[in-house]
């Protein structure tokens, strides 16, 4: 499907959101992702395609791609994305992925590292829109004080007392003590982990050792980010 760029905005330093519209009927579930294809000259070794979470909730009727840029650029794909003029198009396939909430009555722990907050924006906004319970502890780590979507998250937390948000700023990390302090009983909640691959792998190893059932874990890692957050 061809998506038309209708808006481009800076979220925080180095992070931009691209808002696309699709003229054809398109359905997805909050937390899923698309594969994007962007033809551009002098493509680097990473090529002309990328996977990005759909940061918007289905009810918003737009597709939002939010991503981080290194020095306002990075790979040839991201440079071409940043240079896209309004009303130009990008090709995408999907949706894909099972990083979705099936039972809103369950309790959840969401662990987000940096730009890994994107699927949680979609999920939380969709639950709120459908007037479903939000029984979530969100542990959100960032390399700076600029937390993407912080204003929206704070508004949701005011509406939903059962949404608890803990912000962690580097050099502090989401570690075993932070999890014990904020979560407590690890037997009951389901845990969704989203962020750079090293961070996701760390929690995949740590949480079962702390007592969380393996079947309660879901992950969504972002390739191309070697840093922890």
Automatic annotation (TrEMBL):
Keywords: 2Fe-2S, FAD, Flavoprotein, Iron, Iron-sulfur, Metal-binding, Oxidoreductase
Keyword Membrane: no
Signal peptide: none
CDD domains: FNR_like
Coiled coil start-end: none
UniProt-recorded Gene Ontology molecular function terms: 2 iron, 2 sulfur cluster binding; metal ion binding; oxidoreductase activity
Cofactors (names): FAD
Domain FAD-binding FR-type, chain residue ranges per copy: 1-102
Metal-binding keyword on record: yes
Pfam families found in the cross-reference section: NAD_binding_1
Database matches in InterPro entries: FAD-bd_FR_type, Flavoprot_Pyr_Nucl_cyt_Rdtase, FNR_nucleotide-bd, MRET, OxRdtase_FAD/NAD-bd, Riboflavin_synthase-like_b-brl
Protein name: FAD-binding FR-type domain-containing protein
UniProt organism field: Candidatus Curtissbacteria bacterium RBG_13_40_7
């Amino acid at each position: 499907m061809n998506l038309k760029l209708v808006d481009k905005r800076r979220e925080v330093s180095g992070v931009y959101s691209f808002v696309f519209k699709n003229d054809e009927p398109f359905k997805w579930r909050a937390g899923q992702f698309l594969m994007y294809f962007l033809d551009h000259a002098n493509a680097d070794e990473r090529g002309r395609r990328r996977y990005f979470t759909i940061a918007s909730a289905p009810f918003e009727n737009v597709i939002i791609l939010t991503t981080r840029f290194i020095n306002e650029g990075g790979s040839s794909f991201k440079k071409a994305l940043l240079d896209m003029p309004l009303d130009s198009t990008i090709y995408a396939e999907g949706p894909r992925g099972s990083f979705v909430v099936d039972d809103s009555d369950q309790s959840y722990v969401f662990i987000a590292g940096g730009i890994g907050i994107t699927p949680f924006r979609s999920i939380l906004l969709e639950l709120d829109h459908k007037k479903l319970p939000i029984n979530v502890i969100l542990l959100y780590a960032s390399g700076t004080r600029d937390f993407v979507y912080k204003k929206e998250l704070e508004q949701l937390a005011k509406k939903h007392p059962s949404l608890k948000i803990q912000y962690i700023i580097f050099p502090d990390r989401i570690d075993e003590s932070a999890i014990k302090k904020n979560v407590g009983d690890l037997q009951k909640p389901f845990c969704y982990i989203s962020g750079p691959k090293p961070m996701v792998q760390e929690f995949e190893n740590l949480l079962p050792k702390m007592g969380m059932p393996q079947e309660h874990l879901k992950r969504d890692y972002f390739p191309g980010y070697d840093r922890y957050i």
